[in-house]
Amino acid sequence: MPEAGSPLPAQALREAPDPHAIADPAADAAADALCLFAALVSASTPAALWRTLVVQAARLFDAERAGLYLTDGDTGTLQDAVATDGGARSAPGPGRTARRAMIAGRLVRGRDGAMAVPVLAASGPVGVLEVAGAHAGGFGPASAQRLAALAVAAGIALKTVERSADLSTLKSYSDAVVQAASDGIVGIDTKARIVGCNPAALRMLRRRLADVIGKPARQIFRGENAWVVEAAKRVAATGLAEVAMGASLRLGRRSLDVNATILPIADRGTGTTVTVVVLDDVSRERQATDVLSRYLDPRLADRMLVGGDGRPHARALRATMLFCDLRNSTGLAQSLGAHQTLALLNEHFALMEDCLRAEGGMIDKFIGDALLATFGILQPAGDDEDRAVRAALAMTAALRRWNEAREACGLIRVDMGIGINTDVVVAGNVGSPRRMDCTVIGAGVNVAARVEKACKTSGASILATANTVRRLRGRYAIRPADALAIPGRAEPVDVFQICDHLDAAAAPGSQRLMAVFRRAFACKRQGRLAEAVAGFAECLSLDPADRAAARQLEACRAAMTGRGG
Length: 565
What we know:
By secondary structure, this protein is an alpha+beta fold. The protein contains 19 helices and 19 strands. The protein has helices at residues 10-14, 19-22, 29-41, 46-60, 96-104, 141-180, 199-205, 217-220, 227-238, 283-293, 298-306, 329-336, 338-358, 384-408, 443-458, 466-469, 508-525, 529-542, 547-562, and strands spanning 63-70, 82-84, 89-90, 108-109, 115-121, 124-134, 184-188, 194-197, 242-251, 254-267, 272-281, 315-326, 362-367, 370-375, 416-432, 435-441, 462-465, 478-484, 493-498. The strands form three sheets. Strands 12, 13, 14, 15, 16, 17, 18 and 19 form an eight-stranded mixed sheet that branches. Strands 3-2-1-6-5-4 form a six-stranded antiparallel sheet, with helices on both faces. Strands 8-7-11-10-9 form a five-stranded antiparallel sheet, with helices on both faces. Helix 4 runs antiparallel to helix 6 (141-180), helix 10 (283-293) packs across helix 11 and helix 12 (329-336) crosses helix 13.
């Protein structure tokens, strides 16, 4: 749109529609009005509209001069515009008649025989149209009505032209966005033919535009990729968008991981619907997740990729920690050698990780031949203590099966201990700005490590603190173990054995074993060592493989010897 006051060039006026082609002398007034309005609304830009308006005004009123004076948006005053008197020349500035019409907001007649009327748009007056110097006796009342009608028609036409220009700009902008988008965008019509494909989609498909446009969608997305066409059909039929996360596109020898969004776009002009398929190539993100998942828990790796660093900021929360440590790892390393030791550790950790993940546990870190797992750090489940105990039982069961397979191959057995504790810890990032680790710290973590070490002396495979045991909801075979003295704590920590070799709903013989062990342990705490020795001896008669009972029996006999019988 030209700035207010800038005259249209003479060349532009010469290119205006031929007035005689629009106005047929034999046509009636209604037909002439329709032709005039059509000429106005057919203008492609506001500048073309003003040019047509001036030319048609000069023709319609047989005026010596017709001028359009645009309003300055800043000052509200009228500026020089354009005029025509059968040729083309620059118009003089707005005269008294034009200014009066602008102030009055209506048609005004001047003493010099000129007429002027404001041209109104939705936002207000945009200028004044003036005609002067009628060739045949001046302007009568009918001419005044026609000029007012012409100004109204110009305002309506301006609204149409501006809307068309806005739509054209929006379409150009949308087209540019689609072409520049990094996501692949494919349009499919109601006949399941491809009607659009941006450069990103062409790069994904490794095709040229001519090879895609107008082709059946099934020809482009066939075989394992037919899900694209099927989804487009459903969306076209229901009018509801669909999202396919983590979908796969097989393109020759390549495979792309994509997040696909399929949505319907209605064309109000034709009444048809085009289904648009947006393909976000997440192959690199998937590869990054796979790599990160080898060093971090997959859930934590996903958070890192989605939310920046993704790792939880430092916060205090209640969680359950599980320590697991192989026994006699030094002897294993000496007997097996470095390569076989690493292979053994990796196989062992793979078994343990499966058991932990099955219960929602997250491996915090591997520490040599040990690991630390947490429950309830990323998302508390409400039964994290039970999850930790079930994971520990599954880990010992997996170890037994693994040992059986190793012995069948002539390999040595391995043993491990598991310590579990529930406490308030601090979870967050620890390290330097260049190298950080997401972990848990606090006294509760240290207690879990101490409890695991106590497995060596107690003969138990799984030990858990009272903090964990008192929150358990399931039924497990649990019996007391010796309390632990923890440096920095005034009171010893009560510890319990989770019996991995007994069932909570065990046979009568196992139930009797649990009852005898508890009575013997109570006698030991009360200093009734002779009764404790008898009780633990009975436990061994019921289950000779009960290592915890054997250790308790040894401790009681040693205590009796120390007291002199």
